[in-house]
Amino acid sequence: MKAAVLFEAKRPLEIHDVMIDKPGPREVLIRTAACGVCRSDLHFVDGAYPHVMPTVPGHEAAGVVEAVGCEVTRIRPGDHVITFFTVFCGSCEFCVSGRPSLCVDSSTRRPKDAEPKLRLSDGTPIAHFLNLSAFAEQMLVHENACVAISKDMPLDRAALLGCAVMTGAGSIFRDSRVSPGETVAVIGCGGIGLAAVNAAKIAGAGKIVAIDPVPEKRALARKMGATHDFDAMGEDLVKQVLKLTDGGVDYAIEAVGRPNTAELAWNLLRRGGTATILGMIAPGQSVSIPGPTFLTGKKLQGSLAGSMQFPIDLPRLVQMYLDGLLDLDTMVAERIRLEDINHAFDNLRKGDAVRSVIELS
Question: In the predicted model, is pLDDT for residue 264 greater than 90?
Fold first, then answer.
């Protein structure tokens, strides 16, 4: 199969013929239909986060099941599926307490002495990326790294649910549990931020404040449900939001991944409000919170994948799209071929684009 291979951080990906193994116990072979190009991939491509090389990045995908290994119980050949990078075991403390995104049980991965899932044509093993390696014509994943969905769902839109949308929507529905009439600020209007804005609208939030330095992204946020928007570089930003929301928002969602935007989320909160940090703040960087402000009852929390319960929540998001509630169409900036992957990363580095979607089949 064709795949986009990363041999070294800060170097362009290369399209190569890659060998993929047959599915083993509890594994599923998927023909990739579409894959979103996410800023999280860029963190690894540009070296902000380390990873074993060579690897095939990509973690926001959807496709059609071609084959399954023994012991697979939930997935069948022909199923349309969404994949997700937070594979879960289903039986550890985190899984049984409803927090599958935090599962780190090694039983979902092949043993270190087993055959690699991916190899270059010369036999060199390829490190599996975030349990998926989705920038490829096929994916070989654990059955608990995918969920079957309605075949009415367009797969190029379904792919977005595998990272950006489940993370942004989860920050509203799961992490914050926004109630009708409450106020929400979303910092960063890329794919995750736009999904959070849209979910806040679905949840019935009273005021939804979108914050981003790019006017075009703020316009998209308005289209997807924001009631107000502010330039992230504007003067007196905190004062303006506090005035608009009569003392601050109930919930602030940070979807950028920088210390200053995490601190901004905290500063926008009203007394007793909650800030959720979704962005990947790079290793070595820290967030600074003034000590006395903890006496206001504010809460600062992290989140991975929006704390979603994948087998339950992803089919629900699919139905929201099919019912016309969830807006995925606005998020897609362009549809590209696998060979255009480096162009998509260049767009992400510029900060202007929302989502490039690779169409593979």
Answer: yes
Give yes or no for a contact between 252 and 187, defined as CB atoms under 8 angstroms apart: yes
Cα–Cα–Cα angle for 201, 193, 304, nearest 5°? Answer: 105
| Residue 347 Cα to chain centre, angstroms | 18
Q: Which of 212, 184, 214 shows the shortest CA–CA distance to 199?
A: 184
pTM over 0.85, yes/no: yes
Q: Check whether the bond before 54 is cis (ω within 30° of 0).
A: yes
Crossing angle for the helix pair 237-244 and 259-267, to the nearest 10 degrees: 30
- Please compute, for residue 211, the number of CA atoms within 13 A of its CA located in the half-sphere on the CB side: 26
pLDDT tens digits, residue range 237-257?
999 999 999 999 999 999 999
Q: Is 51 exposed, middle or buried (0-12, 13-18, 19+ CB in 10 A)?
A: middle
Comparing C-alpha atoms, which of 56, 40, 130 is closest to residue 86? 130
- Per DSSP, the residues of 277-322 read E-S-PPTT------GGGGGGT-EEEE-SGGG--HHHHHHHHHHHHH
In angstroms, the Cα distances linking 355 to 29, 106, 192, 200, 312 are 26, 32, 10, 20, 25
Q: 196, 186 in Cβ contact below 8 A? A: yes
